[in-house]
Design goal:
The complex is a heterodimer of chains A (464) and B (232).
Chain A: H1 4-16, H2 19-42, H3 46-62, H4 64-77, E1 81-85, H5 88-101, E2 106-109, H6 113-117, H7 120-126, E3 130-133, H8 136-143, H9 160-171, H10 179-196, E4 199-202, E5 206-208, E6 213-218, H11 222-226, E7 232-238, E8 242-243, H12 249-261, E9 268-272, E10 286-292, H13 296-300, H14 316-320, H15 322-327, H16 338-349, H17 351-359, H18 366-370, H19 377-391, H20 395-408, H21 411-431, H22 440-443, H23 456-463
Parallel strand pairs in A: 1-10, 2-3, 2-4, 4-7, 5-8, 7-10
Antiparallel strand pairs in A: 5-6, 6-9
Helix pairs in contact in A: 2-12, 9-10, 16-17, 16-19, 17-19
Chain B: H1 3-14, H2 42-48, H3 56-70, E1 73-76, H4 80-94, E2 99-101, H5 105-112, E3 118-120, H6 127-131, E4 135-138, E5 142-144, E6 149-153, E7 168-173, E8 178-179, H7 182-193, E9 200-204, E10 209-210, E11 218-219, E12 226-231
Parallel strand pairs in B: 1-12, 2-3, 2-4, 4-7, 5-8, 7-12
Antiparallel strand pairs in B: 5-6, 6-9, 10-11
The chains are: A alpha/beta (464), B alpha/beta (232).
Chain lengths: 464, 232
Amino acid sequence: MTTHVQDFLAQARVVTRDLRHRGLIQTALRKYETARDRKKAAFNDWQSARQAAAETKWDAINHLDTYLAEFADKMEARGTQIHWAGNAAEAREIILGIIRSKGARSIIKSKAMTAEEIHLNDAMEKAGYEVVESDLGEFIVQLRHEPPYHIVFPAMHLTRDDINELFQKELGSASTREPEELTMIARRALRRKYITADVGITGANFAIAETGMISITENEGNARLTAALPKTLITLVGIEKVLPKLEDLALFLPMLATAGAGQTLTGYNTMYGGPRQPGECDGPEEYHVVLLDNRRTELLADPEQRDALHCIRCGACLNVCPIFKNVGGHTYGTTYSGPVGSVITPHLRGLQDWKHLSGSSSLCGACTEACPVKIDLHHHLLQNRRNAAVGEPSFFERLAYRLFAFVINRPALYRFAKEAGRLTEPLQKLIRDTPLDPARAWTGTRDLPPMPEQSFKEWWEERR
Amino acid sequence: MTGREKIMGRIREALTVPAPHPGAHDAHGSQAPHTSFKGRPVHVARSWMPPGGDTFEEQVVRFRAASTELKTDFRFVGSRDEAFAELARIRDTEGWKSVATHRAELPSAAAASLGLPVIHTDEGYDVDALESCDVGVSGCDVLVAQTGTVVVTNRSAGGRALSVLPPHHVVVATRDQLVRDLTAAFARVQETYGARYPSMVSFITGPSRTGDIERILVLGAHGPKKLTVLCW
């Protein structure tokens, strides 16, 4: 059995050398950067808006008990059934239970990272239900039996030719290189699904405490249709998505759109306050909201990293991360990739198994800078490294530091080591990158800096 | 213990230890006692955001600029009759054969003026029939100058499906519905409905779109390919 770190290294080695992948990601992210910068410039004061967003989320998360209770009570008052799922298995069981009780057969789904997190599609398919992803990018990766590549752009790693080939094979469509035509093929394939589906499932971007509403952000209108046509609607939402007031959206919707995709506002931002109400002409007869903990409360219990729960899943930190750009989204092997994924995955799935993600960072801070809610991402990566080292110190690291301390505290030994280093330096060149090199793991991808001709001490004595 | 009690218990337990305020790690050090977007005077919060325009004329200019960028067809005309004449022109260009709308004064009058078979969604409708309509004509609650957004609810726009199922969505609005920004739009929605919200409030910004294939913009991913806003 391979470990997560071995998988990560093996895949990173392949992807970083894949020039086609690099070209695709660079083109896509360049387009994103241009659009994002233009939209950021439309703000009169982006930094103050960020601070306000950070403070609002701080308020929401640090009074989560109050706001979550308010949210749940308000939604229940208007006929929504609220379910509380402590972990992934409970969430799956709740959702499958609803589907079973409705005697449903087909399910239409709009994009939900929480559903990826609990592997909902697998569970529903194993139980014999037909599940169709309706977001275009998600539809594409579902046809490829792949997880989404990126939390906002699921099919970012594919070209139009890849998608054309896929559609020809899976949908029997005619060959085309036009993104417009490819989109229309998916549109036609999915239209009937909305109309015939028994159950709709969505994720959520925000949960509004004040009014008891779920807010969903999307561009395509697929979530709108999912929430309009099937008789039963289920929303799976993490407990951290709460915002205190409806008007907070006047700040968060444009920030999410700008940071996430370089848009002024996303195409559809829709707030749902319940099932079809008396006097309304359509909408689901039943609305179920499943609130998911799944170890979010463990992250909440860590005051140092609690702000990681402020995340609005815009993906901005992925888009600026030099590691993400090089290793790509699938290499992480996690639901949430990029800097924020590296910060929260150790909390959600175990520190020792996922600590390598915090190590694979240049700590450049681009993520922290990009975050619209000012999560201190790169410091959290450092804290994860520290926590991992304290929890399970590495034998070799401890040995190395002991040895270093021993030598540096003995001037004669230090002088000897220095001379020995100078003498053996030419030998290192000969054995470099061979099994004889004791520092091979390090020198394999780095150059050892040459020893200076004179040490500081020698230089000082000469001038005295 | 119920699921709710269990999770609430874990949350309360976790929150017994306080967390540092945002900005604590900034180079400039921690500052600011806690306030929120809402806690600040509206003009301060508003001053950070993309502008919406101070006068009605400026707001029309903003809405038009946003519409152009979004590929929304925005037609601001002098009167209701002119608006209906515009609608007739679009009908002829696109060759509409059927129209869906709802029982509200402006949209149903607009739809009736087209002289085509009409479905009213609020009288009960067949999904396939609505899907095969060429256009959905609806009312709205607010137009937002700052972002070029149309705010609809299932009460103001004939339900949840009318504004997304037909391939063309036409919104009819009067000039008093135009507000400067999202803050004003939420205030207007809260004013209109009080605590009795419709079960859906949707902020529609441009026609349905996707960039999922090579980040190239395509309109009409699942919702309408065209969005027309007629305002007088």
